[in-house]
Amino acid sequence: MSIMVPSTTPALITPGRQALDSALHQLDQAAEQLGLDDGLRTMLATPRRSLTVSVPVRREDGRLDVVQGYRVQHNVSRGPAKGGLRFHPSTDIHEVTALAMWMTWKCALVGIPYGGAKGGVAVDPAGLTTRELERLTRRYVNEILPLIGPEKDIPAPDVGTDEQTMAWVMDTYSVNAGYSVPGVVTGKPMTLGGSLGRAGATSRGVQIAALAALGGSPEGVTVAVQGFGKVGALAAQYLSDAGCKVVAVSDVTGAVYASSGLDIARLRAWAAEEGGVHGYRHADALARDDLFELDVDVLVPAALEGAITEANAPRVRARLIVEGANGPTTPQADEILAASGTTVVPDILANAGGVIVSYLEWVQNMQAYSWSSGEVELKLRDLMQGAYSEVKSLAAERGLTLRQAAHVIGVGRVADAHRMRGLYP
Ligand code: NAD
Predict the structure, then answer these.
(1) 245-251/254-257 β-pairing
(2) Of 16, 147, 206, 289, which has fewest CB within 10 angstroms of its CB?
(3) Which residues line the pocket of ligand 1, CB cutoff 6 A?
């Protein structure tokens, strides 16, 4: 059976709808491998709870804007729902549902006791002042308040949100509760119970996954990174620190290239100052999307979904793709890449470092205790390397791609949890 989920806007194929179609396709393949029955397949294809909210925002000039916000809990059979909060103009309910579903499989794959969730607000944060952004965040949190909580659903940063956003989430929830509740959100500033190692955790995980997949020495291995935000910039930094030669990076403002390798620390300082990589003087400018076609060893997509499609996949020359972003490769592109012998370390494995250290942050908050950065790094490394080995072995044993194997493991664990819990009533 192929999985169909009712759409609220069936005629409109948004990027979000495409992401959800990709997620459902991947679930379908895993369900087939696992021999899941139709009822369970449908249950796993549909979110447990979806909330759409209208968020009124008072602008500095007195105007009132209303934006759409979402929180989707895809599955909570293995523990509280967990997933990021995205502020992006093209965010819609389909995208948030796809991202929530990927979170479910990711948490199961790396063996942390969470279900999957995601939140989003359809807004461009760059177009708001800090005070407008704070008002928007607080009102959105207030609207989704019945869903979230340290034992129910724990948001974290994603595209367009950061530590400051998480501090506002924590404060809004805490004011409503009447006492401080640090465990309601992860990716917080250190002063509010954040964890050492959280800010760079997703990127550190990307580095661990890339080095594991490369096998040999990283010295001189050439890398291109799409997206120079929280994940991409530090992934470039850590890969460069490990000895790789990062020759190209892009962000929404443009792309830069240097055949001898970019000085990533210097480029990060430039991007922080100038608002993007565009105009960086110590490298050549590159058309943004030409980055995918460069003759490099490793490609790290770390921006948004649907970056590698059937249109550009035939021209990808990298032998290894390590997905920092969620859903950057479409199923059609996956087939093209598999046929050309390109290895893809899938999102639910490669970018799991973020949710792993979010989990560690939450555990520290629940115990009112904190670990050293060394302890956090060790636990992160253990979970990442363990999951990578499991995925690699299953892929070799069954002749699957790494993505297919990762989904078989993740989906399989969630299906097992459902079977053991049984159905209420
Ligand atoms: P971010 O907002 O910090 O950065 C996003 C970056 O992508 C920015 O540099 C932006 O300019 C760039 N970008 C957007 N469109 C682009 C385009 N067309 N071409 C090139 N660059 C483009 O977001 P982030 O937190 O770094 O998240 C990036 C990806 O990683 C997302 O898919 C997110 O879901 C995923 N992810 C994030 C985390 C986390 O901890 N932040 C964890 C796991 C996965």
Answers:
(1) antiparallel
(2) 289
(3) 157-160, 202, 226-232, 250-252, 288, 302-304, 324-326, 351, 354
